[in-house]
Amino acid sequence: MKEKMSAPSSNGSRSELAVLQNEITSCFRCPRLVEWREQVAREKVRRFADEGYWGRPVPSLGDSDARLLIIGLAPAAHGGNRTGRVFTGDRSGDWLYRAMYRAGFANQPTSTHRDDGLRLRDAYITAVIHCAPPANKPLPEEVANCRPYLLAELERLRDVRVIVALGRIAFDAAIANIGLKPAGSAKRQARPPFKHGAEVELIGGRTLIASFHPSQQNTFTGKLTEPMLDAVFARARQLSDQSTTGA
After folding, report:
1. Average pLDDT score over the chain
2. The domain spanning residue 93 has which CATH number?
């Protein structure tokens, strides 16, 4: 694996992202989500009854000069909504960070709480929405309310060359917010279907890779296996390294 050789982003970009994360964690745009995230934080579940819950929008995580951007759906009610860190404290995160670690995008394969020492390498994780939705199903208007945050991150993450979308909603959001690379003389390119491992060229020289979400629904049933997820992140590593070498 080749080390990243590009210069780090400016302090301005880093500080802009920090300000944006403060805005995200202070958001009250979606009354249904506000009510749900706070209800979950009050009532908890038995196994976490002695823990304090975050109960707010969960900020993004990672390097401001990352070449890899990962887009998930939303925090889990008793994962990110509890720990305050994306994909932390739930089984989806267990799968994600193991795969990222094996591909060199994380310094450790586990993520249990905010102060467990996890650091991302050349990667940044965000979500289509930043609040835990009931039944893991956000409403279209809730996705629309959170869209400005994703657009602002895309504008500030200037070094991103590879995007891994975890699930169909994240895949569609990446295409909608960035746009497909024009195909020849076609005035409008047809939206590609979502398929695990599919690659799509986006505007700005970015490559989108589709992946099934590492939810228990997918991992317990075998729809998504560890080798399948490892292959996605191995490909993301290959493409991000190529963007540095110019290959």
Report:
1. 92
2. 3.40.470.10
